[in-house]
């Protein structure tokens, strides 16, 4: 737990003292929160931020601290919150389907990564997982992320740069077939339509006992991937699906939501063994 706290503190600057509230600075990312449907990730500057509840002079926020509130020109209240990693991921600009926080959480736990880890990610997409991985490998780790489509790679770069994480990420516009450029890697994440085609490449790059993961939308892809992992010398193979159900808490009528975000993909994890 302390390791996770220390890692996140490198991205989200804590207050100098429990008794001293630090003022929000120009250029800082904040979450303006009115309600679950109206919450916006914005950068503090001298512009106006417009909402359906009126506009906010962002320059006025520089005099405030996290946890304070600000009112629009129409008198509607917004709270000024420090963004969580979940907020950063969900607010990125999307050119592709993303890996969602519910899946990212267990990927982080099962990948064995640590501050200083070296990671290969194939299939950058919009960069949601890249953001999470680069947060946790600080201060000396590196993400080598491969994406064959230039449009997607350029968008993911902008997302990463917006959060100031670019020094932890090396972007590569390449279509990998048999091997990656890097070796002695701690973790390989494959997010492409046919992940089994890159299992050989992942094996060559991973250090002994290094971890592998992928996400498969269908049972057919899942089955092909698991059998290929076993054929290529991986062990400790595990396939699972993460489901999240929100609860509507109301006095006298608390119940689960009728609609839930269910299937996003099947996760597969495995470990490289040399014998």
Q: What does this entry look like structurally?
A:
The structure is a single chain. The protein is an alpha/beta fold and 275 residues long. It has 2 domains: 2-83, Vcp-like ATPase, Chain A, domain 2 (Roll), CATH 3.10.330; 87-272, Rossmann fold, CATH 3.40.50. It is 25% helix and 28% strand. It has 7 helices and 15 strands. It has helices at 2-11, 85-90, 101-110, 128-136, 150-162, 199-205, 219-231, and strands spanning 29-35, 38-43, 48-51, 54-57, 69-71, 77-81, 118-122, 142-146, 169-172, 185-190, 206-216, 234-240, 247-248, 255-256, 266-272. The strands form 4 sheets. A 7-stranded mixed β-sheet has the order 9-8-7-10-11-15-12, sandwiched between helices. A 4-stranded antiparallel β-sheet has the order 2-1-6-5, with no helix packed on it. It is globular, with a radius of gyration of 21 Å.
Strand order within the widest beta sheet = 9-8-7-10-11-15-12
State the helicity in percent bands.
10-25%
- Looking at the overall shape, the CATH architecture of the largest domain is 3-Layer(aba) Sandwich
Q: Kindly report the average pLDDT value.
A: 91
Shape descriptor: globular
Quote the CATH topology of the largest domain: Rossmann fold
In short:
The chain has 275 residues and is α/β, with parallel strands linked by helices.
Identify the notable features of this structure and list them briefly.
single chain; 275 residues; alpha/beta; Vcp-like ATPase, Chain A, domain 2; Rossmann fold; globular
Topology:
Elements: H1 2-11, E1 29-35, E2 38-43, E3 48-51, E4 54-57, E5 69-71, E6 77-81, H2 85-90, H3 101-110, E7 118-122, H4 128-136, E8 142-146, H5 150-162, E9 169-172, E10 185-190, H6 199-205, E11 206-216, H7 219-231, E12 234-240, E13 247-248, E14 255-256, E15 266-272
Parallel strand pairs: 7-8, 7-10, 8-9, 10-11
Antiparallel strand pairs: 1-2, 1-6, 3-4, 5-6, 11-15, 12-15, 13-14
């Amino acid at each position: 737990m302390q390791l996770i706290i220390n890692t996140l503190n490198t991205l989200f600057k804590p207050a100098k003292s429990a008794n001293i509230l630090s003022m929000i600075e120009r250029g800082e990312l904040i979450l303006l929160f009115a309600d679950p449907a109206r919450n916006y990730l914005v950068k503090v500057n001298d512009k106006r931020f417009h909402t359906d509840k009126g506009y906010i002079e962002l320059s006025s926020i520089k005099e405030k601290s996290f946890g304070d509130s600000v009112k629009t020109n129409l008198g509607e209240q917004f709270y000024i919150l420090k963004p969580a990693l979940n907020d950063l991921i969900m607010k990125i600009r999307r050119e592709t389907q993303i890996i969602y926080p519910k899946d990212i959480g267990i990927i982080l736990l099962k990948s064995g990564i640590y501050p200083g880890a070296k990671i290969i990610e194939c299939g950058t997409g919009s960069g949601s997982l890249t953001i999470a991985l680069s947060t946790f490998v600080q201060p000396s780790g590196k993400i080598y992320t491969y994406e064959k489509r230039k449009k997607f790679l350029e968008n993911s770069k902008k997302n990463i740069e917006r959060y100031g994480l670019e020094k932890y990420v090396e972007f590569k516009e390449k279509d990998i077939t048999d091997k990656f450029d890097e070796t002695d890697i701690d973790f390989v994440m494959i997010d492409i339509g046919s992940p089994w085609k890159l299992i050989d490449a992942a094996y060559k790059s991973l250090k002994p006992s290094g971890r592998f993961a992928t996400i498969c939308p269908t049972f057919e892809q899942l089955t092909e991937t698991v059998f290929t992992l076993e054929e290529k010398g991986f062990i400790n193979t595990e396939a699972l699906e993460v489901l999240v159900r929100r609860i509507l808490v109301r006095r006298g009528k608390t119940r689960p939501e009728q609609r839930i975000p269910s299937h996003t993909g099947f996760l597969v994890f495995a470990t490289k063994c040399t014998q």
